[in-house]
Automatic annotation (TrEMBL):
Family matches, as PANTHER family: BNAC02G09200D PROTEIN (PTHR33710), ENDONUCLEASE_EXONUCLEASE_PHOSPHATASE DOMAIN-CONTAINING PROTEIN (PTHR33710:SF71)
Domain of life: Eukaryota
Name of the protein described by the UniProt record: Uncharacterized protein
Organism for this UniProt entry: Aristolochia fimbriata (White veined hardy Dutchman's pipe vine)
InterPro entries in UniProt: Endo/exonu/phosph_ase_sf
């Protein structure tokens, strides 16, 4: 058995999630012995081709083994939210485009309103730019390698290269290196492994980690009042109805913090909390933001704010000043995602009940 387990590990095989029952075999006795003996094993290439894969254990009929239905799912849960890709920052001229788009954005209204509208404007510009520049990175890498190979062969046959051809090969190598770095950043951003440096070129590892995140976070079924729902439309509808009802204000009563026996800060510390914001502390805070955190609903990561500080800072400062002087913020600035966190590994997740 150890040899088999070692083989599974060596080949990086993955067992798709099973639903429908806990065991796949029984001896059929009055005091039955039950076990999970049957399973599917797939590799990463299978998942890349067929999408998310799961198994559904069907009822036993004539055999003491349960049949298992292997199901593939191309993962279509609706439009994908915008995500600022850090790899874009390596594209030549992209930072200049960000600057231009930001300056073109709306400029009327409160500072917070302007900032949120500019984010939306830049987001739409990035989407259009990304759609126009969407190509296969693998094809680009292969094309660059082919050009480099031609020049290498030419150098071998002629003994040397013309100066122009030598410079061309250097440029091709630089472009290839950029594509490799973009691929590393792409999968690293999805894997979000803190201890891996950008220089680690193991993109297959990043890819595997990112795929594992998707499999672990995927919701294949939910149970509501003893009814299991497995179709996407039903899952989406159930979640939407549940949280719309949850966040409706059924009870308008709210506790007042003033009535709680809270400790007070000393005068100097309290006064420091109401001092005006200064550029230095804002920049220091932004530059200290972790690079591996998932973005909020607007899709912009900390890399956008760090790299774009030179053209963002004036609008950010105005937004802080407006908040300090008038207490004004845009509603959109407070938007958040709701993340469902299971309380145990491999739960029949998520379990929703009206109880």
């Amino acid at each position: 058995m150890n040899y088999f387990n070692n083989l599974i590990q060596e080949l990086s095989l993955i067992e798709p999630t099973l639903s429908g029952a806990e065991f796949t075999w029984t001896n059929g006795r009055n005091q039955p012995i039950m076990a999970k003996l049957d399973r599917f094993l797939v590799n990463q290439e299978w998942i890349d081709i067929y999408g998310n894969t799961s198994g559904r254990i069907l009822p036993r009929t004539t055999s003491d083994h349960s049949p298992i239905l292997l199901e593939t799912d191309p993962e279509n849960w609706g439009p994908k939210p915008f995500r600022f890709e850090e790899e874009w920052l390596l594209e030549k001229g992209f930072k200049d485009k960000l600057n231009t788009w930001w300056q073109e954005g709306p400029a009327s209204g409160t500072a917070c309103f302007i900032f949120s509208k500019k984010l939306k404007y830049v987001k739409n510009k990035i989407k259009a730019w990304a759609a126009d520049n969407r190509t296969s990175r693998e094809e680009e890498k292969n094309s660059l390698l082919e050009e480099i190979k031609k020049l290498d062969i030419e150098e071998e046959q002629q003994g040397s290269l013309l100066t122009t051809d030598g410079l061309k090969r250097d440029r091709l190598k630089e472009q290839y290196e950029i594509k490799v770095r973009q691929e590393i950043i792409h999968w690293k951003q999805r894997a979000r492994y803190k201890w891996i440096s950008e220089g680690d070129g193991n993109t297959k590892f990043f890819h595997g980690i990112a795929s594992a995140h998707r499999r672990r976070n995927r919701i294949s079924s939910i149970t509501v009042e003893n009814e299991t729902i497995i179709d996407k439309e039903g899952i989406i509808r159930t979640f939407t109805d549940f949280y719309q009802d949850l966040y409706n204000d059924h009870d308008p009563c709210r506790p007042y913090p003033r009535a709680l026996p809270l400790k007070s800060l000393a005068t100097p510390a309290a006064e420091s909390l109401v001092l005006p914001f200064i550029e230095e502390e804002i920049e220091t805070t932004i530059q200290s933001l972790p690079a591996d955190k998932a973005p909020g609903p607007d899709g912009f990561t900390s890399a956008f704010y760090k790299e774009g500080w030179t053209f963002l800072k004036e609008d950010i400062k105005k937004m802080f000043e407006d908040f300090y002087n008038n207490g004004i913020t845009a509603t959109s600035m407070g938007a958040t995602f709701i993340t469902l966190i299971p309380k145990k590994m491999e739960p029949p997740r998520p379990l929703i009940s009206d109880q």
